[in-house]
Each structure stands twice: as structure tokens, then as C-alpha cells.
Design goal:
Elements (H helix, E strand, L loop, with lengths): L2 E10 L8 E7 L4 E8 L15 E15 L6 E13 L9 E9 L2 E12 L6 E11 L9 E11 L16 E11 L2 E8 L2 E10 L4 E9 L12 H7 L8 E3 L5 E8 L2
Antiparallel strand pairs: 1-2, 1-8, 2-3, 3-4, 4-5, 5-6, 6-7, 7-8, 9-10, 9-15, 10-11, 11-12, 12-13, 14-15
Length: about 260
């Protein structure tokens, strides 16, 4: 089941709830996700490029959800979720780990989900308990397209694996060359890591204007600036014509493949 999750606030242990970021998670029917968290405030005009320091976290990968029953009533009490990180803006290797949390329904508010778990607080650098409140966005077809997912994957190691070969020797440590774009409903998010460089974009469908608008773009190093580094805009324009298995040649010779498409 696909879902659009928009975070209302996060609370770390005994602290008060705060909305320090604009956080949206797009999850496809096959459970591929792109999660982008940008420190507020967002730019004016909204299509301005933001500095890398404003990216709190970006993740892409796959997720699973398992219902947990109340031992007395035998009804579902909450869902235990695991998000496996295929790409992570904080980790530059091919084993980026995973994080876990428990999702609880909010009585009287079917559109809300309360997530509880433990993870590293970026402000303190310590693993702490947290709560996050999420509101569900509307999953609907826009211009006849429900969901399209593209992936880019390249083995980058040392100087031979770098796109176009323009960078020098990077040592023997393995580097990540991966990217994912998820278009779902009225949102498109893309995340690309090319070694030490990252790029994220978020586009939103403005129904009253009848067009897609760029809301977030952040890049570093060789992925900073320019258009088409991630084929997000391309997906907004021709997503309806794409089919699973199609390939898109992007900037830097990166080959993006359509891995999923659906109407919902």
C-alpha cells in the first residue's frame, strides 16, 4: 500500500514537540521510499537552491510493516516498521543500516499516525527515544499517473568508478553511487549519492496552477546546481509514458531505470 507521510512534529525524550524540518516520506506500493528532511525555513522563492547545511537527512530504500496484536483483545495495537537504508546522506557506504519504530493509530484521527522508537538525535549525537506525529497525504493520480519509481545503481570504488572519471584517487574505501526517484500523487522526491556528493529534490503538483513546482533542491560538490542531475522534472513531464524496464540517461552518464509503476 502506497502512502505519503508528512511530519507534523518530533519530540525527543522529555523535550517539547518541535517542527524543525519540512519532512515528507513517499512510499510506493512495493514499499520503496524516499525520505527528505530539510531544516526550516524553506526558501523564498521556493525554487531557490539551498545550502547543504540545510539538509538534515535524506534516506532512500525499502520498508516493511508487521502488525502487533494486543495480547488480550487480539486486535492490532500497533505496527512495527523497519526502514532499510539503500542510500543515506549521513553514511557513504553500501551498508547504510536501518532504523525501526512502532506506529500507533491516533483515536478519532484516522489521518494521523504516532511513531515511537529510538535513534540518534542529530542535536546531541546520542541515541534517544523519540515520538513523531505524521499526517497522511492524499494518494491520488495526477495527470493519469499514480506512482512511478526510478533507480540508479553503480559500483563506485576508487577512481575508476566515478562518474565521467573527473575525480582523482579516493582511496580504497568503497563509495556509493545510487539514486532513487519516487513520484506519488502530487509529490516527486529524488535522492542521489555519488561518492561524497549528494543531491536531493522535491517537486509538488499545484493543482490550481495546473503545473509541477520545485520546492527543494540541495546539492554538494559535483552534484550542486544545474538541471537534470536527478531526472525529477523529467518524471513530472513524461511519467505517464514510462513503463517498467525503461531507462533514462541522466547528467553524468547515469542510467536510471524504471523499476515500478502503478495507478495508485
Amino acid at each position: 500500500m502506497a502512502d505519503i507521510s508528512i511530519r507534523k512534529w518530533i519530540r525527543w525524550e522529555s523535550h517539547s514537540p518541535t517542527p524543525p524540518t519540512s519532512t515528507i516520506v513517499l512510499t510506493s506500493p512495493q514499499r520503496r521510499f524516499v525520505d527528505i528532511r530539510v531544516l526550516l525555513p524553506l526558501p523564498t522563492p521556493p525554487d531557490s537552491e539551498l545550502p547543504l547545511e540545510q539538509l538534515e537527512w535524506a534516506i532512500a530504500g525499502t520498508s516493511t510493516s508487521s502488525p502487533v496484536l494486543n495480547p488480550k483483545t487480539k486486535e492490532v495495537e500497533y505496527s512495527h516498521c523497519v526502514w532499510s537504508h539503500w542510500i543515506d546522506s549521513r553514511v557513504n557506504n553500501r551498508d547504510a543500516g536501518a532504523d525501526e519504530g512502532d506506529n500507533y493509530p491516533v483515536e478519532g484521527h484516522p489521518e494521523l499516525t504516532l511513531e515511537r522508537g529510538r535513534m540518534v538525535n542529530p542535536a546531541s549525537g546520542r541515541v534517544e527515544g523519540y515520538e513523531e506525529m505524521w499526517v497522511a497525504g492524499e494518494v491520488r493520480a495526477v495527470e493519469g499517473v499514480g506512482c512511478v519509481v526510478l533507480e540508479y545503481d553503480a559500483d563506485l570504488k576508487g577512481e575508476e568508478g566515478w562518474a565521467r572519471g573527473e575525480r582523482g584517487k579516493q582511496g580504497e574505501d568503497e563509495r556509493v553511487g545510487r539514486g532513487m526517484v519516487v513520484r506519488l500523487g502530487g509529490y516527486v522526491q529524488g535522492f542521489l549519492r555519488d561518492g561524497g556528493d549528494v543531491r536531493v529534490e522535491r517537486w509538488v503538483w499545484e493543482g490550481e496552477r495546473g503545473k509541477w513546482e520545485k520546492r527543494v533542491r540541495i546539492g554538494s560538490g559535483g552534484l550542486k546546481g544545474g538541471e537534470g542531475v536527478i531526472p525529477v522534472e523529467f518524471v513530472t513531464e513524461v511519467g505517464g509514458q514510462m513503463e517498467v524496464g525503461d531507462e533514462v540517461m541522466g547528467v553524468g552518464g547515469r542510467r536510471w531505470r524504471v523499476v515500478e509503476k502503478s495507478l495508485v
